[in-house]
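Two proteins, back to back. First:
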Amino acid sequence: MANAAAEVARRKARIEDGTGSRDNAVPFNQQNFEQLQKACLQSGSLFCDPTFPADWDSLGYNQLGRYSSKTIGTEWKRPTELSSDPQFIVDGAKRTDICQGVLGDCWLLAAIASLTLDPQILSRVVPPGQSFGSQYAGIFHFQLWQYGQWVDVVVDDRLPSRDGKLLFVHSAEGSEFWSALLEKAYAKVNSSYEALSGGSSIEGFEDFTGGISESYDLKEAPPSLFLIVRKALKLGSLLGCSIDISSSYEAEALTGQKLVRGHAYSVTGAQQLQHCGSLVDLLRIRNPWGQVEWTGAWSDRWEGWSSVESEEKKKLNHSADDGEFWMSYTDFLLQFSRLDICNLTPDTLSSEAVGRWSVSEFEGVWRVGSTAGGCRNYPATFCSNPQFFIRLDDEDEEPNDEEAGCSVVIGLMQKDARRERRFGRELNTIGFSIYLFKGRSDVHLGPEVLLRRPAAARSRTFINQREVSERFTLPPAEYVVVPSTFQPHRRGNFLLRVFTEKPAQARPMEENMNADIQEPNTAQEVVDPHFKRLFVQISGNDSEISAFQLQHILDKVVAQRSDVRTDGFSLQTCRDVVSLLDVDGSGKLGLLEFHQLWKKIQKYLEIFKAHDSDASGTMSSHEMRAALNEAGFQVNSSVIHQIVVRFSDQNFSIDFDCFIGCLIRLQLLFKMFRTLDKKNQGTIQLDLQQWVCLAIN
């Protein structure tokens, strides 16, 4: 209950004051950089981070564990102990500031190197004004995007070293430390240095920008890829390309036309021009080394420039020996292996010269027993998955040649995978499906929609990576996105992001909370005489039934049935029944109140048996939503989860007494809320005493 309250408070703060936005980053581990730096300066001490200590646990848990040969002789040293003149950044951040150490995080270093190409993005990840000068206190900070929110990460400057040299990333000169400290901040948010081993530079791109990435195998390039590149550049996206290598021996080897294998290039421009009576597609590529350029057609010293009209040549604004060059799109597909595009959020760039994506993002949870439904191969549980509504109204202004429609990039990202590596947790295999749907967006779709019609689109595959993302061109319409793990009953937190070229509506598909309970007629004349005589026999001298008596009665009745399973009704359920139906305030049930209960239980028994699909006498927790709807309750996934936690067994089955207890408890809660919500506004206000009295009831 406390965890649920904390999550509600966090989401409320994010909505009200933008907590977690780029301009209001969340202090990671609740560590405030300014306060900690001020305290150290006042005390004259250097900061030592208690949340990421200079010990073996911060290095790793296996390959970089305490007894690993890779970490023998490791000492944690401050830059002032490693250099006579340590500097944070000298003459701006450069590629040569980033040299790999013994850690297998080249993917991260490639992403860090990309930051040096864009000073504006770099300054947001690496806040300016940090140095080893007068305000030096052994503390630095960086800002990283982590699963939907920006965090400000504080680190001390004790760095792993051996024989007086940094063990991991370092500058070529050895006296510049911004990259090593940034690597430490990234290791901190992922729990250790070893957690950074292995990955894709796309992951780093996203964590430094908050953007959403796409990756294209150029051997299977879609026909519209050149147009996608042009649009991406207009939207300020970061584009990188590379040539695959088959072994480490090929790394940084040159091709016959001076392209570097296994090396990260940037795509900085796209242009079409007339040449010899034909329209030619060209791309501008940048080698971050600032030298070693393509020597084929359209390169700086290409002989064919003399045949290009001067007006056309002006479009290219080409220059020589700067690491940047033009090449035809056709040659690009032949020479390069992969293209990565990181589409940026509207708040990443301040320039008005570029367009903006429209962005929506949603946090979600796959919970075992309630919302972890697996893919469509598992029809019994698939519809339990979280669902999200998207409405696309306007087609792209510049449709591609293949089809007109609305460009949308959808990314599904699972959270905290690197942090949980040390516990042996593997990545879930994830993907998503998109269904065409026209109707209310405040309902949770069931089998009649999700199982009886084909998906309009889906991720190409289910894959065990941090994120699966896909670009689609869809007709204007209303859609529902269903993110899932491949197999059901796999827990995980996820972030679903939707980038659209035109503004679009997007929101979770969740039912409005409501209860429409049809109570039976309780007039004296409708009570069967036999029922009256039975009531007199069991109620005693006062003709009323207490919660203790009710427990005995219900257990005795249900024990005689072979079609439902029960462990016996709890006293709390019986007390809830009395609280719900006790009209005269006696604390017991009279004849009419007990008759109303009996009719209610008969109705709920029919619902229970209808949803006991295997006639086991119990109901699967994944059937709970449909059963509640039939009983008159509309609840969302958060409430379903709490119901499963409270009323299901270890196998996520719900027996009859727990089912009755759940429905009675729900009706009681709705009744209490409506009693307090006198103006029917959907909100109530309680002081502490009122809250405690209600919650403990």
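And the second protein:
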Amino acid sequence: MTRASQAQVAASRAAGASLTEKILRKAADHHRAGRQRDAERQYRRILESRPDHPEAHYKLGILANEGGRTDLAVPHLAAALKADPDQPRYWLSLATALLGSGRVPDARAVLQRFTERGFSDPQTAATKTAIVANLFSDAHRHYSEDRLAEAEALIDIIVLLDSGHAEAIHIAGNIAVRTHRFELAADLINIAISLDEGVAGYHANLGNVFCKQERYEDAGACLQHSLTLDPTNAIAHSNLGVVYHKLGYLPAAIASIERAIELDPAYPRAYSNLAVVLKEVGRLDEAVTCYDAALRLDPTFAMAHSNRLFAKMYAAGISPAEQLADAKLFGSLIADPLRRNRPFRNDRDPERRLRIGVVSADFREHAVNYFFEPALRRLDRAALELVAFSNNANDDAATERLRLAFDAWHDIAGLEDEAAADLIEAEAIDILVDLSGHTSGNRLLVLARKPAPIQVGWIGYPGTTGMAAMDYRFTDLYAEPPGRGDDLSVEALWRLPGVASCYQSNPDSPDVAAEAPHSANGYVTFGCFNRFTKVSDDALAAWAEILARVPDARLLLEIANIDAPEMRADVEARLTRLGLPLDRVILEPRTPQNRYVLYNRVDIGLDPFPYNGGTTSLDSLWMGVPFVALEGAHFVARMGHSILNHAGLAALSGRTREDYVALACRLADDHAWRDGIRAGLRARFAASPLMDNQRLADDVRDAWRAMWRLWVERAGEAPSR
């Protein structure tokens, strides 16, 4: 090319550039004046001659974004960035458009590359700050609306742009808590504290994480520090009370939660937390009153409904009919409206291998699992495929054992109720078994959605859930014989031919004492090692009468926190009021170390009423100690009667209070009868249905098959009540 030609090309380009600049200025004038169509027409004129012109693409993208047409904005902004990646506003505008169109991962990828380029001019910094502010507003809104995944994705971008955004990191920690990722939650909240250590809420929430991890000492330290920063935080006072309760500092727990209520009388969870502690110390009427207060403030507070139901089971003055009414209220108000109304697509072959789902918060070292795991390992796997849905907060060695015992395992602790129900339905479960009922960690609101054709309650809870979505509850012929209990249960009672659960002995339990305690002591020792909450005034009055009729006898009670002066004073005052001679009552602390060993100091066990012992009564027989029971009118008042009958000791179950007292006195006076029962009791107990896990597994298998056949015959209709 000649010099003249080169000059002509250069001149032409200059002219073109000049014309492009004029068009850009004209388009900008139209844009500022609100004439978007005219502005767009001018920008498109530029692209006709220069298809890769970055500024024209950028401006067209901005126009489209302003008009809500993000589908058009994104390609123009992407083209601008491709043509000139050295312009920070192109990066940020493209990311903003991608966010507006819901393409959060794509926006994050763009911003990741943007940060790697290290743009640092003031205008870019100001734009970043504005984007972060908008993102945080959206993330906070999503979080408050329980759209946790969306909130978390936006917070991820916020932290990418501003690694020192303490509040965003704190919210990310709270999301991790709500999705049961506790180690991550602790790490995130600790980072937020390092960025702004003067925020009381950060320390309080870290304490809550430690509480979830059962690190109660650490939790208490965090909550106490939070309250030094903000002594008026009712939630922190209430949560500190929960920690004190877990650590066994019951008077401090009550005081802390009462302070929370004083600060915020409209905080329902504080009343519920206080009720838990009051129940623990035996102040049942006050506990029920607190649950009532919580539910007046929030009638949909599901946990308070569940805890109130459990508390009323312990109270002697509350009838089973009232408990049923409360359960039905929970069902009609909270659970039943959640039920899904759509047909199940399960294969209706009545004889095929059944898919059994099991939901529990106690797939760990827990009393419920002691009863469940031995039967689980003996279930007929040719007939049954077993799928676990675990709601554990903290797994342990038992959890790892159980994983291997199931055909499939799903952790649902971090799933919302709807998502957990979707998972169960997607797994095509035929029969869903609930091991929790209204106990801690339950997922009743998952079962309320009816994700499986048949739903059955077993082991964990001794009463009705009150939910229409639950079809059956396993029971036995002594606890609830035909005609008894059906009118107190929303679920149909399925009476197994043997026991409804079996005892598993602890390999570390000591041997039965070679001699009965009375041989060395010269007097008979009665004992009760149940939670003192179960011990009603009526039971204590009966025990006072027994001690009066057996004047040299002693009574050994195991009571949680009895070494605390306030607790001992309350207990002794109650015992005195009910006629028990304190010089003949031995009070021992309820500790893991005392399980089993105290039985070798007892000749005769006394079953509490109206809420009988369960595991404790079975421990008693395993340790060679007979006990007397009062045959009550409903399930929890008939557990002792059921255990004794299955153990071949029906003679120790009295029909009336007078029978109960007379049996205890006769057993104390008749050494030959008592020693005859004691001799070889462990071996006889081990050979009884109460420890025949294979029979239980076969009975449960047959029951599930019968339920399934009935469902198939009824073409998927619910079983009759």
